[in-house]
Amino acid sequence: KAGVTQTPRYLIKTRGQQVTLSCSPISGHRSVSWYQQTPGQGLQFLFEYFSETQRNKGNFPGRFSGRQFSNSRSEMNVSTLELGDSALYLCASSRLVDGGGSNSPLHFGNGTRLTVT
Amino acid sequence: QKEVEQNSGPLSVPEGAIASLNCTYSDRGSQSFFWYRQYSGKSPELIMFIYSNGDKEDGRFTAQLNKASQYVSLLIRDSQPSDSATYLCVVKDTGRRALTFGSGTRLQVQP
Fold first, then answer.
1. Which 8-state DSSP code applies to residue B18?
2. How does DSSP classify residue B42?
3. For residue B102, what are the contacts with CB-CB under 8 A and spacing of at least 6?
4. Could you tell me the end-to-end alpha-carbon distance of chain A, in angstroms, rounded to an integer?
5. In terms of Cα–Cα distance, which of B87, B89, B90 is closest to B105?
6. Does residue B40 surpass a pLDDT of 70?
7. Which chain B positions have a beta carbon within 8 Å of A50's beta carbon?
8. pLDDT in tens, A8-50
9. B42 near A CB under 8 A
């Protein structure tokens, strides 16, 4: 079974631009969560989508948005990029909503490393 | 104050020793606790979860939970160089439903 696939692996953007990241979950997984990982803050939850609906949202500004398609694939968009948005963005899929429990563990992709200059 | 606190390390132990990784959390409403392992340049993977006070063993790994002290730990027995990674303590609050990750403890097992 294929794992969680994130594209692209690396991105370099300049301040003020916008960016779209893509995540394809494991087949059969309907929940997709997005996380931002930085050396200083660690992993921080952005949002979770399940059945094309946002179910949870972290404490990030409205510049960060996402969506999920009928095939469970998800995209994350960041508008008006800032230097502080430079990070590794991880996508995780799980079978059930509120993923993370023993019966629905999170499976992470390899991430997209975004650099904002 | 961070919601999930971990010593960043590195924690260095010799091969064959017991590695003890500790974590404290601030939200008493937390219900579920997980340990994820992240190798350098790789994504996190779940290695243990614990819900009830006490110890839970899985192979060389033992998770310990003390809700009164708001403390979670992970013991790795017979540490191997392949255990060298960053270990993330993760807490789930049923009310908020999302996961809160600690910043991780980097473990180095010396051959």
1. P
2. S
3. A42, B2, B4, B5, B6, B23, B88, B89, B90, B91
4. 37
5. B87
6. yes
7. none
8. 999 999 999 999 999 999 999 999 999 999 987 888 999 999 9
9. yes
